[in-house]
Amino acid sequence: MPLVVWCVSYNAGDIGGRALQERDDYSWTVENNSIFSSSPRFDCTMKWDAKRKRFEAFRASRDRYRCGARRQCLWLVKEDGFYFSNDGVNWIKDFPWM
């Protein structure tokens, strides 16, 4: 069952969507100075089988420091919820599907 991801930037508009299979990734890059100097927000909608969730994938005021020195914000989606990391090694569950 694919994970359908669709993301929108409130500053740049529709980023687009994808149907992801297991171990696929979906990413985008934004200029560091524009992300961390203003207040952009990126919302994503995820749909996996009967589960559906909309969440803020990035909000400058929340993630300015959370994304670490490399300014890398990573999300991992599992059956039990959404996990965040700024290094791709240490994952913290941020919230459940429901």
Automatic annotation (TrEMBL):
<comment type="similarity">
    <text>Belongs to the plant self-incompatibility (S1) protein family.</text>
</comment>
<keyword id="KW-0732">Signal</keyword>
<dbReference type="InterPro" id="IPR010264">
    <property type="entry name" value="Self-incomp_S1"/>
</dbReference>
<keyword id="KW-0713">Self-incompatibility</keyword>
<dbReference type="GO" id="GO:0005576">
    <property type="term" value="C:extracellular region"/>
</dbReference>
<dbReference type="GO" id="GO:0060320">
    <property type="term" value="P:rejection of self pollen"/>
</dbReference>
<protein>
    <recommendedName>
        <fullName>S-protein homolog</fullName>
    </recommendedName>
</protein>
<dbReference type="Pfam" id="PF05938">
    <property type="entry name" value="Self-incomp_S1"/>
</dbReference>
<keyword id="KW-0964">Secreted</keyword>
